[in-house]
Amino acid sequence: QVKRTPLIAGNWKMNFDHLQAIAFVQKLAWSLKDAQHNYAEAEIAVFPPFTDLRSVQTLLAADKLAVALGAQDVSPHEAGAYTGDISAAMLARLDTRYVIVGHSERRGGHGESDELIGLKASAASAAGMVPVICVGETAADLEEHGAAAIPLRQLRAALGKLPEGAEFVVAYEPVWAIGSGDPATPAQAEEVALAIRELLRTERGDAVADTTRVLYGGSVSSQNVASYLKQPNVDGALVGGASLKVDEFSRIAQFQ
Ligand code: PEP
Questions:
Q1: What is the value of pTM for the model shown?
Q2: Partner of 15 at 20 to 30 A CA spacing, among 22, 49, 100, 255?
Q3: At the topology level of CATH, where does 7-253 sit?
Q4: Ranges of each domain in the chain
């Protein structure tokens, strides 16, 4: 089996101003250092709000911290008259490595379509970043279609816009598990992660299927993270609420 480096990703959502962000990342770095975290075992990324990116970038660069920077969204457009949008080129200039696209809070709260999410993934990739494509079913979807059908539809649509050869990460996040304290079981997460990998194999071939990381997200904590990472097709976690507490996120990053 191909070894995939696990990715532990902290999605801060709309929390922390830039001063709080700096304090958080400094504490995180100390905590990981104290714990003698082995960065070869897992990659760690934080996804601050746009207004924090520059401050966090400067801190990471100055202290040579092995934490990657991610953004929570990106415009599908290159530049121009798109008030309020942030372009992929702007993010790439700040050493942003990852960009979340299609988080359920944007699909649901902002009416983002599968197609738009594919265009955002493609824009991120064209600027040299790695889109983290979020997919997941609502509780109603689960009841009506089972767990995998909707995530697979969402992923197929995004891949339709993403050129061959683009690196990407998939995050399986059942909407009913996000922020609910009611996570999917490891077996449920594995079942959908496996279905995602099979789709990748059909759509993109063995190399992409074997090397692409599939994360689980939805009420992940230091108590349950290891149970997901033990699954053969789960290669990391996208963490919301628990990524806002330094000690907790640090423990999650040391899931082994
Ligand atoms: C998320 O928003 O991506 C998420 C997984 O949130 P939480 O960990 O709080 O469920």
A1: 0.97
A2: 255
A3: TIM Barrel (3.20.20)
A4: 7-253
